[in-house]
Structure formats: structure tokens, C-alpha cells
Amino acid sequence: MPEIFSTAPEDKTLAPDTLHTESRVLIIDDESMICESLETLLRLEGFVVASAADGEQGLHKLDEGVYDLVLLDLALPGQSGLEILHSIRERQPQLPVIMITAYGTVQNVVDAIRAGANNFTQKPWDNEKLLADIRSAIGRYRTEQENIHLKRALKQRYSFENIVGKSEAMLSVLDLVGQVAPSRSTVMIQGESGTGKELIAKAVHSHSPRRDKPFVPVNTGAIPSDLLESTLFGHVKGAFTSANATKKGLFEVAHTGTLFLDEIGTMSLDMQAKMLRVLQDRRFMQVGGTHEIQVDVRIIAATNVDLRQAVRDGRFRDDLFYRLNVITVDLPSLRNRREDIPLLAMHFLKRYCEENGLPLRVITQDALRILVDYDWPGNVRELENIIERCVVLSTGPTIGVELLPGHITGQSYSASMLEHTPNASLFDILEEVERRIITDRLERCNWNQTEAAEHFHIPLSTLNQKIKRLNIEIKKKNKE
Ligand SMILES: Nc1ncnc2c1ncn2[C@@H]1O[C@H](COP(=O)(O)OP(=O)(O)OP(=O)(O)O)[C@@H](O)[C@H]1O
Ligand SMILES: [Mg+2]
User: Fold this and answer.
1) Which of 37, 169, 386, 467 is the most buried (most CB within 10 A)?
2) Looking at the whole model, is its pTM more than 0.70?
3) What is the pLDDT of residues 309-337, one digit of tens each?
4) Residue 199, ligand 1, Cβ within 6 A
């Protein structure tokens, strides 16, 4: 019998790319006549077959190769078929096993099924029935295996908890994060405000060997530059008037961990020069200090300004740029991955319903369409805020268009107008948007014009002029 199969020893579940097309069957039976006739039958039907004369040999073959099904004799010399069945189950719990025996008593059947056999066939077998049983068991097994692998692949791709996204752009970001996380390389994350730069920085840290060490974020843009130096490098007692005691800087706090330098693009040129030094050899001096401190820190930087442009404009040192720009993660803006909007909306909906102790709300299709069409200048953070607001304001089970703020529905009116009346002038579009926003607000204020005017921060007289000009029909107030 030729050795037909070889595969990686540990993972006996088939990876999708190694899924073979032909079905592979292992026969374990001590009677060579039986093995031969089964082999012939199965080969003629296109199966790839291997046989073993006893349980031990069978288990060995199972360990060495990949099979889709085992035909197992119950009465084997040495270890019984049932014992072998147990050993197979320990190795591969899902692998289909069909028991074959000449002594098919009820008790045998019960024992074998209890021990995890998928089916039972008596000698002499009916070829057609046996083939049908084999095919259906293998079919089920393969579907299960494919599902396991799909789930596993998805889990690997989406294993960054809390990071939601299925767009190609986001998936390639996650792939890159997965690749760079284990190393010590400096990572630079670029993206518009609210795209998730800090979230990604945390994901890099938490998937690195430093995950149990500190992750220290510092917003270099928000700290005045004279304070930034002592914040990052620390200072010795008496270094400046208010330095009453020696204080560690964030580089030391982050020792063995990760330092997240946020908004690096706004750092002063003077500070950039000092950063260059520490990024080169991870050595620095505290403010007022006399000896160098060495740290082991991984740097992740983030920026929402185009650093290349800043270099061209002379606002950012090119040598520092190249130090930081070892691996760049470009975070796509939300309007460039609209397919993620419904997923993110659901994610935040669930979060804020839970946080507010409310039953899960449903976003209506109309509202969702508007969310998908909107341009999201504030990206994911803006979407998160809108969903939180909708959840808090919602009084029933659904979140509809009426709960969305005017600036979001307004843009969508203009988009839909452009779509439906492509020849409309800008003036017409603006008028229509104004009409809808005012009507929307009046409806929400129960047609109370004074309240609506206050909301828009305009005098009541101006609102009334607009209502007249735009032909807005004032409805009767509902009883409150
Ligand atoms: N892909 C995502 N999945 C789930 N939540 C996200 C995703 N991206 C961003 N968020 C959430 O959006 C909010 C903003 O993200 P984050 O603070 O990381 O953005 P940022 O790019 O650092 O913003 P800024 O430039 O304003 O500092 C956070 O609450 C974050 O959890
Ligand atoms: Mg941020």
C-alpha cells in the first residue's frame, strides 16, 4: 500500500488552502479480503484509500496523514475497535468513523454510537448504502471543517477586540498591525481626527510582547513646549523654580513598555531636536541632570497633519521624520470606507444601550441610509457621539431620522436632491436644505416658533421671514 498522504502533524483540521478535492478514507480491518474489496469499491468511486491491519497501525497512519473518514472494524486483534475509536476521538473529535462488524448485535451498535461512531455497517455490506453513508458523513465533516476554518480566519483577522471594520482598507490596517505588533519597530499612525489612531496604538501595544508593561500616552501637541521637555524626560530637584523634587519623565515611566506620542506634528522644532537624540539611542538626560539615562521603550507616534508636507514646509525635521516613519499605518477616513458605517453604528448602539440600561434599539433603514451617506468630518468619534446622542434621546425601540441632528440630515437632503434633480441650481439646493432643516426643527419644537428661533440663535422675526419666504406651512401645535 503506497503512503499517499503527508501533512503538518499538529493541525489535523484542514486549512482551506490545503483542502483536497478527493475524499480520503482509512480502512482499519484485520481481514485482508475485506480491506481489498473495500479498497476496490472505494477507489472505483474516486476515493483515495489507505488500509491498516490493526488498530495500532491505523492510529499511526492517522497521525501521519490526513483523512476524511475511517472505516473501523469492531473485532480487531489486540486493542478492540471500541478502544481504537476512543483513541481516534481523542486525536480528532470530529473525524467521521463508520464501524464495520460481522457481529452486529444491538449492544455493539449502542456501545459504538456512544463511543462516538457516526454510523454502523454490518458485513456483508450493501455497497450502495455504504457509499451513500460514507459520502454523507464526509460531506457533513467537510462543511464543519470549512466553517471552523472560516471562523478561525475571521477571528485572526478581527482578533483586535473593539476595533470594528470589514472594509478592505480597514482589514489591511489590521493585517499590518498584526504584523508589526510583535516587533520593537517604531510605528507612525497617520489619520484624520477621530479615525481611531489611539485605538490602533493600543492594539499594537496589546499584541506585542510588552502587553503587560505600561502603555503611556502623551499628547505632545497639548503640552506647552517648555513643559514638554520635563514631562518627557523628567527633571532633577532644583532644575527650575517649581522643581521641588526629582521627577521621572514619561520615557522612564514607559520603560520596557510603549510610549505613545500623540499629535507629534505640532511639536516645536526645538523639542524635535531633543526627540531625535532619544529616538536614536534611547538615551537622554533629565532637565538639570548630569548623567544619561538609558531606557527600553517602544515608540508609537500619531499625527493628523501630513508630516511629509510639514517637512517640505520646514515645520518638521526630516531626520526625525525618517526616524519615526519606520512603519506607517495610514488610517482611512470614515467616508472612504462607508461599508463600515452600519457595523460601527451597531457597535456603538449596543454599547450605549447597555451603558444606559436600555433595551437594544433598532436604527431604521432611512436613518441608516443617511448615516451611510453623510461625510463624517469627525470620523468614527463623530459617529460614536451621534449614536450616543440618539440612544439617550430615544423614547421608543427605534431610532429614526427624526433623532438625527439637522446638520446630518441636511447634508443628506442636498445629496438626495442632487441625485434626483441634477439640474437644480445651488440656490435651489440651499433653499431646500434650509426649508427641511427649519421644518424639521419646528416639528421637534412642536411648532413653537420662539423655541425654534432660540435653537437656531436667530431672532424670531428672522425665522418668521424665512418661514414666509420658504413657504413653510405651520402646523397646529399638538396638545402637550
Ligand atoms: N474601528 C473602530 N472600531 C471601534 N471604535 C472605534 C474605531 N475607530 C475609532 N473608534 C472609537 O472612536 C473614538 C475615537 O478614536 P481615537 O481616539 O482612537 O481616534 P484618534 O484618531 O486618536 O482621534 P484624534 O485625532 O481626535 O485624537 C474612540 O472612542 C474609539 O474607541
Ligand atoms: Mg487621538
Assistant:
1) 386
2) no
3) 999 999 999 999 999 988 999 999 999 99
4) yes
- Domain co-membership, 150 together with 174: no
| Per-residue pLDDT tens digits for 135-178 | 999 999 888 887 776 665 555 443 577 899 888 899 899 989 98
Nearest to 297 by CA among 340, 248, 330, 332: 248
Task: Return the half-sphere exposure (C-beta side, CA atoms, 13 A cut-off) of residue 100.
Answer: 23
Q: Is 8 part of a structural domain of the chain?
A: no
The environment of the single-atom ion ligand 2, i.e. residues with CB closer than 5 A, is 197-198
Residue in 26, 19, 106, 10 with CA at minimum distance from that of residue 62: 26
**Looking at ligand 1, which atom is closest to the CA of residue 198?**
18
Nearest protein Cα to ligand 1, atom 29: 381
- For residue 58, give the CATH number of its domain: 3.40.50.2300
Ligand 1 neighbourhood includes 388 CB (under 6 angstroms): no
Which of these ranges, 101-110, 179-188, 231-240, 382-391, has the smallest mean pLDDT?
A: 101-110
Domain span at residue 23 reads 16-154
Q: Is the CB of 438 under 6 A from ligand 1?
A: no
Closest by CA position to 81, among listed 49, 50, 113, 106: 113
Which of 163, 176, 195 for mutating ligand 1's site (highest number of atoms within 8 Å of CB)? 195
Q: What are 220's three cell numbers?
A: 505632545
